[in-house]
Design brief:
Chain lengths: 277, 747
Amino acid sequence: MTAYVRPRDLAEALALRAEHPDWMVLAGGTDLMVNAIHQKVPAGIVDLWRFAPIGGITVGDGRITIGAGATWTEVERHPAIREKLAPLALAAREIGALQIQARGTVGGNVGTSSPVGDSLPALLALDCELEVASVRGHRRAPYSAWCTGYRTTQLAPDELVIAAHLPLPGANVRTAWRKVGTRRAQSISKVMGAAAIEVDAGVVVSARIGLGAVANRPIRATAVEEAVRGQRLGAQAAEAARAALRASIAPIDDVRSTAAYRLEVAENVVARFFHVS
Amino acid sequence: MHRANPPVGASLPRVDGIAKVTGRARYLDDLDAPQAWFGATVRSRVPHGVLEALDRDPAFDWSQVAVATAADIPGRNVIALIEDDQPALVPIGGRVMHVDEPLALVAAPTKALAFAAAKALHPRIRPLPPVFTIDDALAGAQQLYKDDNVFKQFLIRKGHTTDAELDAAFASAAQVIEGTYWTSPQEQMYIEPQAMMAEWVDGRCHIVGSMQCPYYVHKAMKALLGCDADGVVIAQSVTGGGFGGKEEYPSMLAAHVALLAAAAKRPVKIVYERDEDIAATTKRHPARTHHRIAVDARGEICAMDIDCVMDGGAYLTLSPVVLSRGVLHAAGPYRCPITRVRGRVVATNYPPHGAFRGFGAPQTTFAYERQMQKLARARGEDAIALRKRLALRSGDATSTGQVLGFSVGTDEVFAAVEGIAGPAPARSGTSAAGSPVRRGRGFVFYFHGAGFTGSGEQRLAGRATVAALPDGRFEVRSSSTDIGQGSITMFVQIAAAALGVDPGRVAVIDPSTSRVPDSGPTVASRTCMVVGGVVDRAARVLRARLESWGAEHGVAGDLAAIARAHGEVVGELAETVTYEPPPGIQWDDATYTGSAYPVYGWGACLVDVAVDLDTYEVAIERCIQAIDVGKAINPTIVKGQIEGGTLQALGWAVLENVVYKDGRVANANMTNCIVPTFADAPELETVLVEVPYPFGPSGAKGVGEIPMDGPAAAVANAVEDALGCAFDALPISPEAVAQSRAAWRLS
């Protein structure tokens, strides 16, 4: 018999995590229900769907804080996110179908951290920091260091992701996002890229590039970020980005695409981010 | 031909529409069956081998489940269709021919327990080397079928063309266009997976399920159960799509639930999971077609030489018929005096390939319309002008020597496309995502034979009944199934028009072999043209009989009043009519000459594409389809058929594929075995062209398959136009476009 608990408050939720680290944490269920029939029935379920302590989106202190329980529909519709964190709003629109967006949560996407998670390159480019809690206390972790391998993360067995904190980009930061999927909607990504580029008088001051589906986890293209610093936007920065990317990723062949395609398209996508005047 | 009476030609709402959109329609898995157990299938994990044993895990409690194996089959262990080579379950000592082949069955009170039991039954298979390519099959790498691995071959020689004549024509040609074309396997992806339920009552097996052809299942079950026609009843439940995928495979499920229901002594239901359905059931035959065209100095085609090889998979199933339709369409709707078409379908160790909308014709259409495009490019001639110049018209002969008489919509479909095409869009541009794009336009002209091939309809002699019920209502009884295409509504309209009654007075009963005559299968674009024609005639005869009975007995009022009066005095009046072929249909199976089909549908399709030069994705920006359907009984339903078929074809062209790895479907889920979404669909511009068929109901001819044939080649032609290099293999995926980059010639 599977146990089922819907905690009253965060303290109870964290206590449950500490006591039963093997229990399944359920929010929207969009990840868990896939192949549920082929998976082992969990010993227990902690249901955090619409759990107030991890819900909501707030703006303040130069940042936007998104509760781990916020759905992609909430993210996509939030005016400040649409205005300031456009890549994340665009990514939210690409997650599954409308029904999935209405159930799937930010916490679920970063909890699973699949290499093809649609929001993750945007979180990387937007310098996301996760807030994580357990009975041992709260901690902050930069998302760029969160993923440790294929669908593995820093999350300890007793921890819960509480929120994602995203700094508001300055006025001289331009953002970009591109998903290349197997089709135009409800598709798994073959290549994904997101960028936040700080520009001064047409020259790149700094850049953060997040990539998906080109490695065993979502990654920051740090070689590209270094290569474009000081380069002029347009052909110069684009070619520098292309060359640096080629040397720094080694995507794979799988049933959805080929390594050669992913490499070439990742180069094109990243180069296009800089190929603007 | 008579004038069409209302409601024929009107877009009546679908009879089954409200139940389906409100969720009241009950598909197989929705049927109340509280006592039913769930069935699961133990399948092979190897592509080729010998089944040596089925070991039961001693740790599993076998008392709580029912098990069935080949040893439990009361009749013959075959899925009877064309040839008896496919077993319902591989027997111990028998040959395993493909991955996911059924070996044994289990049933249990819950799905979870059934799956657990299936996992606890371990097949022991001695592996044999598998065959995965057409060339290995032809080379006889392993003996899979008879001594040459060829399930069937055909040779068409137009006007008894000899090889010497053909060689001479090519030798003296001013120009030869030659190419090899590959088309990929395709999954039907009906919304409702395969599903079936059986129950034994007083020694009689009742089977209900999702299917296209109740009498195919009936035939197969008589052989498997060793019973006569009354020993088994087959009924269709509401069916969520078929596209050919529920033509032959439902007999396999029927066999399995029948055996399990006998073993469990209660009703048993099998509903495939999506991954199981994609992995185990039939796909469109992959094909390789070599095509040569010889052209004289004036640009007339003087000879064609075509060799098409299809991969049939592990068993013969419907492959000979698929191949037949493929070769009969391979020379296309073009004038050509000297024609040779060779076709072969070979055995491999893939799960059997089978029926899919178009049924062989899309494969060979892709080849000939790529060839015509290359001819136009080589001659520097406009793509539409060239096809117009060479197209078949009334009085011309097809590759089988069939002289076309009536209902040839060639000029009408060309005119329909040209009327709305407008100029080609700008070659270069920028996509919404900011990437450069390159645009191109492609065009195809094609035809599709409606109904069964050759003398098939005569042999089949499909029947349908129209009955006047004592309460003044009327009933259509046929074994044609509504699988989402709208056939119930179409039958109501045809019968109501012929009877001269309100369509609300006419009902189509659910097909069950105990209640309806054999109208033939729901396939081959034949339901409206052939069975609809039979319904039309039956309704007219019934009306005449009722009217004369009314006159004799002095009954006043409309036909419903006469039916009620007849009902009171005599009872129901039913009229059953058998299909009669149109006059002048002659076909010779031995030489493959004569009237291959009673009539053809004609199609022209124009596609504009934009290729993203950053991602190599082909976006279909525009698609015009003009199809000559003879007469649209219900224009909305006919448009739905054309638009659905068109999108299925566009998907096949650019994004659908079935990826096999070691004989196993590697992308057996809806995440990776993708079909187009609405976001992938262009604005479909559909033009209904009506050049009536004198022997169809109100002039109607087949429409179900034709839209599938043309668009893939139109897309390939458009991509070639955009990038300046040839695309001769499907799918034209972004990966394929990326790989072609060195060959691009951007103008």
